[in-house]
Amino acid sequence: MNSPVVLITGALAGIGRATALAFAKEGARVVVSGRHDDAGAKLVAELRSLGAEAEFVKTDVRIEDDVRNLVDKTVARFGRLDVAVNNAGTEGQPGVVTDTSAEKYAGTFDTNVLGTLLSLKHEMRVMLAQGSGSIVNLSSVLGRVGMPGAAVYVASKHAVEGLTKCAALEGAAAGVRVNAVSPGPVETGMLDRFTGGSEAAKAGFLAAMPAKRASTPEEIAQAILFVASDKSSLINGQSLAIDGGYSVQ
Questions:
Q1: Of 82, 55, 83, residue with least CA distance to 69
Q2: In the prediction, which pLDDT does 195 show?
Q3: Could you confirm whether 153 is annotated as catalytic?
Q4: Superfamily for 5-187+217-241?
Q5: Catalytic residue (choose from 153, 159, 164, 186)
Q6: Which residues of the chain fall short of a pLDDT of 50?
Q7: What is the pLDDT of residue 68?
Q8: From CA 167, how far away is CA 80, in angstroms rounded?
Q9: pTM greater than 0.85
Q10: What residues does each domain of the chain span?
Q11: pLDDT digits over 111-153, tens only?
Q12: Using one digit for the tens of pLDDT, what is the confidence trace for 100-113?
């Protein structure tokens, strides 16, 4: 399809924003979502300046009515849904297991896990009926390898990996693929917050990476474009690590 309809959650910054721009440059029709109207309007204007048809739908992925509305408005505007990128996520409040509270757990899991589940539910509702579609969930390499002091975040990304596999099996016979992209550290605000805003801590963290650097949002976006495209038509239920070799150490 020359002009696929692409929906992206958590699209107003970082990987989500880079992915929206990358799809727009490829000629896709793009629906972006997030929780801030001003940033959404600004991003849509930028996408349209690239020649793309683009819309913003204010969405909190933790609220099912919001997610249902997002998907339904996408279909009402463009008639179908070809690609969905479930990028909305949070690092939560990092801390060791003994300092974790139920509130910290819920704050992370409601966005990373419930938000992904609700997005899958309503995206697949449309894609299964139309007999095609490709969904890419944003996971993390930490969902594979773990990290001291990040137990809740790591557990939430383990859950995203599990959701990806189950949804892939459920959609395969109907022509719906579900995969995950699992970045290592990425040059975004999340990395800065995760390392406490300390340049020294960030430098020390990146020094432990085989590639000795973080990826850029644009590098992750290009991987998402590949996984979502017909070029990966038989890739299903997989999680692609983009981490410069970190997860194979």
A1: 55
A2: 77
A3: yes
A4: NAD(P)-binding Rossmann-like Domain (3.40.50.720)
A5: 153
A6: none
A7: 98
A8: 19
A9: yes
A10: 5-187+217-241
A11: 999 999 999 999 999 999 999 999 999 999 887 887 777 899 9
A12: 999 999 999 999 99
Whole-number Å distance between alpha carbons of 241 and 96: 25
Answer for the pair 109, 160: CB distance below 8 angstroms, yes or no.
Answer: no
Question: At 186, which amino acid appears?
Answer: V
The closest of 158, 209, 217 to 188, measured between CA atoms, is: 217
